[in-house]
Each structure stands twice: as structure tokens, then as C-alpha cells.
Design a protein that fits this description.
6-stranded mixed sheet, 27% strand, 7-stranded antiparallel sheet, alpha+beta, 18 strands, Rossmann fold, 422 residues
Length: 422
Amino acid sequence: MLVSFDVENWTCFRDRQQFSMEATGRTPDELAFDTNVNRYPRLNRVSAIYGPNGSGKSRFVDALAFARRLVLESAQGAQAGDSIDTRPFLFDIETRTEPCRFDFVFIEDGVAYEYGFAVDSKRIRGEWLRVRQPGGRWRRWLIREYHPHTKAFSWVFGGSFRGARSTWQEATRDNALFVSTAVQLNSASLRPIVNWFRNLAIVGPGGVSPDFTSISLQEEPEFQTRLVQFLKQADILVSEIRVQEQEIDADEIRPYLPARILENIGDLEGATIRIPEFGLPVKGHDDLAYLELDEQSDGTQRVYSFSGPWLDVVDRSRVVFVDELDRSLHPHLVQFLIRFINRPRAASRNRAQLVATVHDTLPLEDALDRTQVWFTEKGLDQAATLTPLSSYRPRKNESLRRGYLSGRYGAIPNVAEFEAIE
């Protein structure tokens, strides 16, 4: 469960920006869930981020993806001395050499974690961790800080943090996170942190591959019924879906591949691709006619690709970030995907969360609550801000869609009146 995510000095986010999934007293019960953690009793199921093009929506998702990658790969995917692909705010001389900072608050298996780190292109500049066990109080487990004047780290471990601390500390490279290193060396107490990041799903604007859905169809016979039901609810009428496997002809595709892939063309020998086929009823006959997925519309292809991950997110109560959820989708399909997570039937058991960047304003009418909406906006200094709709104090019966499009909350493009360009 995600409670909050803060980012500072990352691409367009010069100043610290705070994003929270905490529900307020005004959030309807069905749009939030209880955490059973006193400090964070209720969390939103969905948050949507609106804003004009270039205002920082995608950069916010990028920040999360970068932090996730560093947690999962810094201990094993790099060597000592390797640079780190940080991207500080460039339009201020002071921030160019300052570290990027990321802070998370999340709940895993009933335990609350406050974890964060600061990083520049050469090393981890700081790392910190506080933990609250069920029924307990917050306990500091780690403070790691780099001191430029001595070119050395200082380490402070809390007394309640157990394990081979000195061994893990010595094994941690300058460009690796301590948490990642310790888990690589079998730290049981820190493993839930890495597991939370591993289960965090991030979907870019290109969407997801249909393979996840297709593999689920092949491996789980009962998934067929759920998938067809999901698609029918999205107004995609299909009676059956089957997956055919076709062997790749390496010689046929070789002329279309770049040189760097051709070097490994041998890896394609004997490989297959999965081709989903939609079975549709034939008038006057009991048989079905089948169309391949690429014969369907872009929107149908995108919904099919989303369907497997969407059901998985709900089944496993995962957190998913989606950039440009509404790309190639009809507004009603966007509403359907949001509502599927925001208003689950098994509300008491389901704790899935969705954070999506969107342009489509229809969900503001009835798919989202005013406590679930955020805006990004960029100033003349190129610095972006992230602001909750609640800070504008919209009236109880105010049309959020009309208010947003009229510019009441900002975060819309300032498009000039049309003039002929000579």
C-alpha cells in the first residue's frame, strides 16, 4: 500500500513535491480502504494527475521508475565507480550539482516504512529508514550520510535493527543502496522493502505488452471466463479468446532489424510469438469466426493488453502507476478502468491502488472524487509543481470538469487565439 511519495530535484521538479494517497474525512467510504495502521487509517484507491503537456506528469512517473530501479538493481546491476543516471533540475545553477531526493511511505504486511535516499551521478548521498511494527512506535533503523569534506560516509543503526549490520555496511558500494545490498546478502528484516518495490507496477505511455494477458490465458484455464467477462464489461463483445503460437522466421525479419539485434539473431532460432485470436459469433451458425488481435482497433488492443495486468493488480492488491492511461481509449473505457479499481465489488478485501496521468476530463464527472485529483503545472522558471485539487477548496456541488476546463484550478495549456502564420 502506497501512502506517499515525495520527489525533489528531479528533472522539472526543483523543489520538494509531496504526493499522498491518504484519504480525507470527505472521501467516500467505497473509494478508500482501511489499512489497520493507526497513523495512516485510510488510503485512496485511485489518484489521477492532470496537467498540460510538458507540465511534469510523465517526469513524475519517471521519478518513481528511477527510484524503483535503483532499489532493485543497484546492488547487482552495477560495478564500483559506475555512474548513476540521475537527472537533476538544470535551470538553476545551484541544483545542477545537488542530489536528487526520493522519499516513500508505504505499508507492507501490516508494517509501515518511511524510506528514502538522495543520489547524485557518482554515489548515494544519503539513505534513511524508519519502521513501525503493528502496535508499536516508530523506530529509526538507518541513517547513512555522505560527507564531501571527508569523502566518507557516516552510519547510524537503530538498536532495534537486527542482522549482520557491519557485514552489510562493508559490502555496500558508494553507488549502491544499503537496503538493496543487505537483501542481496539475505537480510530478512529488509526484504519486505525490496518486495514492495518489486510488486510496484509502472506502465509507460506505450502501454503494456499483450503477452501478460496471453500467458495468463495459456497457464490458467479459469482465466478465460474472467477475461471474457472483463472485456464484455468494457463493451468488447467476444465469446472466446484463444492463443496460437507461431514460430519466428529469423530470415524473414532479419532485413528489418538493427545491427545491434542482428548480433544476437541466433537467440531467435526456435522462438515463438503468441497471437491472441478473438472468437466472434457467426449469424445463423453455431461456429465462431476468429480475428487476430492486430485486426482489432487500437483501443481494443490496448484494453486486451491492460486486462491481464488489471486483474492481477486487483487480485494481488498491487500498486500500479500508469502514464497516459487515456491514450487510444474512448473516454468511457477510461472511466471503466478507473472504476474497476476505484469501486471494487470485494471492497473489504481489495487494496489495489492506481495512480494515473490523464488528459480526459470525463472521469472528473463521476469516476473520481475531488480528494483523488492532482494537478501538475510548470512556471516560467521551468520548475514544476504538484498540487491536490483539495487545495482549491471546490464547492460541494461544483462541476470539477467545468472548473478544470475553465482554468479555475490552473494546470491547463495557455493556447493563444488562432492567427494565420505567414
